Amino acid sequence: VVCRINVPLFLMITGALLLDRKEPIKEIYQKRIFRIASVLFIFSVFYYVIAVARGRNTGASVMDFLRRFLQGSVQESFWYLYLYLGVLIVLPFLRKLAESLENREFLYLLLLQLFAGIGIQILEKVTGIQINDNLYLINIYSFYVLSGYFLGNRIQIETIGKRQCLAIAGGLMLEIAVATGIIVWDYHQTGIYDQACIGLLSPILTLGIFFCIRWLCSRYRLPRWLESLVLFIGSCVLGIYLLEQFTRIQLLPLYLYLTEKSIGIVACSCYVIGSFLLALAYTILLKRIPGIKRLL
């Protein structure tokens, strides 16, 4: 349940940081879109070559690569880069929309998403009636970007007291318990774990965690060494994301060995942490190359 908020949180951070800026369309394309598109193309070529070398793609050709690249199937984990490119392309329109909306209209948007994205799905689960989804036109990803702008720039976080934040945090814990209960109930009804059901209450959890983290950051400072470490790893996040699948391939023999010698949670934890650290090491080395440093 908690892990489902990772991409929405990135989108909310994007909205909080980018929708409040003034940039001409030309600068957006030169500074942002070109960079992400270049990274996507270069690393798609990289993973396509790896797939061919591993014998996973027997019909390799330039046209096959271009087809897969346009479909987004060269490396499935890159789906977020395609999504992020889409956000950047419509960024000027989202900025205009965010600037013109009043706070009460943002609240209306939040309530509308809670009703359309959560209430309707619960109603469908309970009644078995499929409600026409054309009734609600706001894309869930646009909702997160706009919500990030609203919670990051319109809310005066200094006016929120400790008790209010603790109440929100307590509500989030209750929400996790309710979400878990819904998943268990749905499993007993259908016999499967439905992905849509697992992420049913993600909007509430995402907005709440974003708000609580922003409140904590406004009230408390991390120790200087820890702050420096977080900022350093944060500057390597894109590289880690791009190289994580490559390091998983490299460490797969270690994972298989550990699954035989230990319990699953230990093997999986070592596999994930090892892949992260190895991807971080690769990113640090690549960022020393001038041309690559500007991309990562």
Index terms:
mainly alpha; globular; 296 residues
Secondary structure tally, helices:
14
Shape: globular
The amount of helix comes to over 70%
Biggest β-sheet strands, sense, barrel? none
Gyration radius, in Å: 22 Å
Question: Which series of helices and strands comes N to C?
Answer: HHHHHHHHHHHHHH
Low-confidence stretches: none
**Mean of residue pLDDT values:** 87
Question: Could you outline the blueprint of secondary structure elements for this entry?
Answer:
Blueprint: H1 6-18, H2 25-53, H3 62-71, H4 79-89, H5 91-100, H6 103-127, H7 140-154, H8 162-190, H9 195-198, H10 202-219, H11 224-235, H12 237-261, H13 264-286, H14 290-295
Describe this structure in a few short sentences:
Helix content is 78%, strand content 0%. It has helices spanning 6-18, 25-53, 62-71, 79-89, 91-100, 103-127, 140-154, 162-190, 195-198, 202-219, 224-235, 237-261, 264-286, 290-295.
